[in-house]
């Protein structure tokens, strides 16, 4: 379990950041997680993430 001090600092940092900045990072991270989940590696994962960006 994280100390309350770290949880509060994390919450403050996320609240200071607009959603328009956070969502592209979340979407890109999700694409990478999906690529690795279906067992793509290296260049294949990179190609799939880059291809998905165009949709």
Helical content class: over 70%
Global outline: elongated
Structural class computed from helices and strand pairing:
mainly alpha
Mean pLDDT: 87
- The count of helical stretches stands at 3
Radius of gyration: 15 Å
Q: What is the straight-line distance between the termini? A: 38 Å
Low-confidence stretches: none
Strand tally: 0
H/E element sequence: HHH
Range of strand content:
under 5%
The largest β sheet comes out as: none
Question: Could you describe the 3D structure shown?
Answer:
The protein has a domain at 18-55. It is an all-alpha fold and 55 residues long. The protein is elongated. It has helices spanning 4-16, 19-37, 42-53. The longest helix is centred in the middle third of the chain and has 19 residues, at 19-37.
Summarize the structure.
The protein is mainly α and 55 residues long.
List the helices and strands and how they pair.
Blueprint: H1 4-16, H2 19-37, H3 42-53
Helix pairs in contact: 2-3
List key phrases describing it.
mainly alpha; 3 helices; 55 residues; single chain
């Amino acid at each position: 379990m994280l100390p309350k001090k770290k949880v509060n600092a994390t919450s403050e940092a996320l609240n200071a950041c607009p959603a328009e900045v956070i969502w592209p990072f979340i979407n890109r991270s999700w694409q990478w997680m999906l690529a690795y989940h279906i067992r793509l590696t290296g260049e294949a994962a990179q190609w799939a993430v880059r291809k998905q960006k165009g949709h």
